[in-house]
Amino acid sequence: xxxxxxxxxxxxxxxxxxxxxxxxxxxxxxxxxxxxxxxxxxxxxxxxxxxxxxxxxxxxxxxxxxxxxxxxxxxxxxxxxxxxxxxxxxxxxxxxxxxxxxxxxxxxxxxxxxxxxxxxxxxxxxxxxxxxxxxxxxxxxxxxxxxxxxxxxxxxxxxxxxxxxxxxxxxxxxxxxxxxxxxxxxxxxxxxxxxxxxxxxxxxxxxxxxxxxxxxxxxxxxxxxxxxxxxxxxxxxxxxxxxxxxxxxxxxxxxxxxxxxxxxxxxxxxxxxxxxxxxxxxxxxxxxxxxxxxxxxxxxxxxxxxxxxxxxxxxxxxxxxxxxxxxxxxxxxxxxxxxxxxxxx
Length: 345
Known about the structure:
Elements: H1 6-16, H2 20-23, H3 28-32, H4 64-76, H5 120-126, H6 128-131, H7 141-148, H8 163-177, E1 191-192, E2 195-196, H9 214-224, H10 251-262, H11 267-277, H12 282-310, H13 316-329, H14 336-342
Antiparallel strand pairs: 1-2
Helix pairs in contact: 5-8, 7-9, 10-11, 11-12, 12-13, 13-14
């Protein structure tokens, strides 16, 4: 009877039975302890978690960032869909709101701003330039109405008048009334804080609008429309009846101014006459203008005398020459080369 190897049988029996450590549940500490890493079924178990194989270093494992990059590249390889452009369907049928031109220059599309519910009569009362506008022949009122959409058969303050049309005409007149001088300088005696004095000047007694004046600009707008409005300044003119501020000279002012130009070699006389020519007109304006011209002459003469003394030429002849040259240099009507030479003395 063959002999049975009891040690081999016991060893095989112990291998066929699951161990108590494998069948019993593991505690939290046991799960986190180092030991053999469980592999999927059919693959050999790995070594302890804190050990590694040399060959494992060369095996590149996808990281989280690499995985996300691969996913993004995958999306880019697929056709891309773009959202439709434009307004939502429910907003496409809304009427556009008229907006101002934004440049400050009036336009044919101007309307009262949102919240401005004034009537035509209220707009007229709020705009002195429109309220005081005359009906002389060169104002061409009916053509102004045509350019701005006003009904010329109705009074401007009529309840049936289009308020937006009256608003457009008011904007045009305010734009012209606040324009700068033809040189681009300020008209400080006519425009304050960007607002004109409310008086469209430049109309003669015969109803003619002189070129280079506010009235001349109104006439040009009536004839040419909004395309005429551009630079916010008065046009240049050769009309000697037009002053630098765009207002008219009456015949007396014109004569005094022209005489002052021709008598430039007589500083006191020239400055007085030129001051009268540039005055506001009327008795008060004439006196003020003449006095201003005379004082400018005295100021120039005094500066010339002081200059001769400070340069070491304190003798009567030098002082007299310095005063004469100082007065000549301050003569408004004198040619510029003459002024430059006079200032050398």
